[in-house]
Amino acid sequence: MQKKIKLGVNIDHIATLRNARNENFPDIITVSKILHKIKVDSITVHLREDRRHIRDKDVEDLRKLNLLPLNFEMAATNEMREICLKISPSACCIVPERREELTTEGGLDVKNQMNYLNDFLPNLIESGVKVSLFVDPDISQIQAAKDLGVYAVELHTGKYANLFPLGKSDNELQKIKEAALFCSKLGLECHAGHGLNYDNVKNISKIHQIVELNVGHFIISNSIYIGLEETVKKFMQIIEHPSQRI
């Protein structure tokens, strides 16, 4: 039986380009229509505290358009929880966030925030939003996520991606494989993302228990060279996405 895998595209950096001139080009709605046409499975946006790229109106517009399931990345703050409950996306992914970081630098430290998250998460879970936690491929963090009753975890693949061009990624890949298998044993859906590109994604996409990839920076950046449609289609071919199988 051939593995099924979903692809979510993070469009944060479309908003980064738009915000550079504080105009409405490139337009995220036009981008979402392109992604829908080529059968991407979902759109991911990270509404950061400082609104450095995605803004509140972007989230509202995407939800209203409702062309693709919306995956709402968010910090575990009361402000973001209220926005998520109001917007009611298909899914939300809780990520660590520090104002000074350029991008998310690691997974959420779930096991050391159990008391806080145990109070923070129930409203989201009970609302029907599919809640996931962005974690490093660490067994103890995944067990903590399971104990909190979330739907899924997304494994942080950043360390693997950084080591891949150095030819030193085998140990990290093994950790990801073991983490994904552990998710399956616990009944957690397993996703993965961060730093994935044409070269390093195949190893990750072959892990049977990983059913969804979320990719942003590479797809948006490579689109400068060959266009958004061609970039996404090639990515889908590499991961053997169902829409690209003959």
CATH architecture: Alpha-Beta Barrel
Using DSSP, what is the number of strands?
8
**How do the helices and strands follow one another from N- to C-terminus?**
EHHEHEHEHHEHEHHEHEHH
State mean pLDDT (0 to 100 scale). 95
> What is the overall number of helices?
12
General form: globular
- Strands of the widest sheet, in order across it, are 1-2-3-4-5-6-7-8
Structure in words:
The chain is α/β, with parallel strands linked by helices and 246 residues long. Helix 4 links the parallel strand 3 and strand 4. It is globular. The relative contact order is 0.15. It has one domain: TIM Barrel (Alpha-Beta Barrel), CATH 3.20.20. 44% of the residues lie in helices and 17% in strands. It has an 8-stranded parallel beta barrel with strand order 1-2-3-4-5-6-7-8, surrounded by 6 helices.
List keywords for this structure.
17% strand, TIM Barrel, 246 residues, alpha/beta, single chain, 8-stranded parallel β-barrel
What's the structural blueprint in terms of helices and strands?
Elements: E1 6-10, H1 12-19, H2 28-37, E2 42-46, H3 56-65, E3 70-74, H4 78-87, E4 91-94, H5 114-120, H6 122-126, E5 130-135, H7 139-147, E6 152-156, H8 158-163, H9 170-186, E7 189-193, H10 201-205, E8 210-215, H11 217-226, H12 228-239
Parallel strand pairs: 1-2, 1-8, 2-3, 3-4, 4-5, 5-6, 6-7, 7-8
Helix pairs in contact: 7-9, 11-12
Task: Provide a concise account of the structure shown.
This protein is α/β, with parallel strands linked by helices and 246 residues long.
